[in-house]
Amino acid sequence: KNEVEQSPQNLTAQEGEFITINCSYSVGISALHWLQQHPGGGIVSLFMLSSGKKKHGRLIATINIQEKHSSLHITASHPRDSAVYICAVIEAQKLVFGQGTRLTINP
Amino acid sequence: EPEVTQTPSHQVTQMGQEVILRCVPISNHLYFYWYRQILGQKVEFLVSFYNNEISEKSEIFDDQFSVERPDGSNFTLKIRSTKLEDSAMYFCASGRSSATDTQYFGPGTRLTVL
Predict the structure, then answer these.
(1) E strands, chain A, where?
(2) Which residue of B has its CA nearest to A49?
(3) Which helix (H) or strand (E) holds B23?
(4) For residues A20 and B43, what is the distance between their CA atoms, to the nearest angstrom?
(5) Which residues of B touch A99 (CB under 8 A)?
(6) Of A15, B14, B21, B36, which has the fewest beta carbons less than 10 angstroms from its beta carbon?
(7) How many contacts does A have with B, using Cβ atoms within 8 A?
(8) In order along chain A (107 residues), what is the average pLDDT of each group of 10 residues?
């Protein structure tokens, strides 16, 4: 069974800072998802990636399949980026979730 | 933009009662999922559903749980005899293809078992 660990668990930063959230997993996978959970509870898919890097606006996600590690970066962070960011690895027909990283961006 | 909807948003029930949580996935999606999140804990996979049958289920998804796609649009999760520990947020999700494709989540149903 895959163990998915995220770090840090909580992160507080000032507006404009560059943010990095890390995800590591124990068993080799083909791909993983990065998700955002809003303060109200809703979940939005940010990225699905299987290799290399993807960019969407100020968000960048990278994955190293050999090292079993992925990172999510936010450039020029803004208070509206405050949310829980969740890494989820794909295992057959299911997602195995990390515990999430709670990000707070102060103005 | 199409979205996944769930009803009700909040359900309160007595222990031992049956509950049905309803989801309307995005219309051209073929893969459907239920997840749950106990307060303060991580999201957990319950079940995936494709071609009118369960494709995978977790150890949480025991005989008390069942899923159905009764009419080609709704996707339901039934809990036959609720327990206190079933209190959680339940999320439905759908996707065009397999788990490697983007999944679109509904807003969730908060289930409270008293």
Answers:
(1) 4-7, 10-14, 19-25, 32-37, 43-49, 52-56, 59-64, 69-74, 83-91, 94-97, 101-106
(2) B100
(3) strand B19-24
(4) 21
(5) 41-42
(6) B14
(7) 63
(8) 93 98 91 92 91 96 94 97 96 91 97
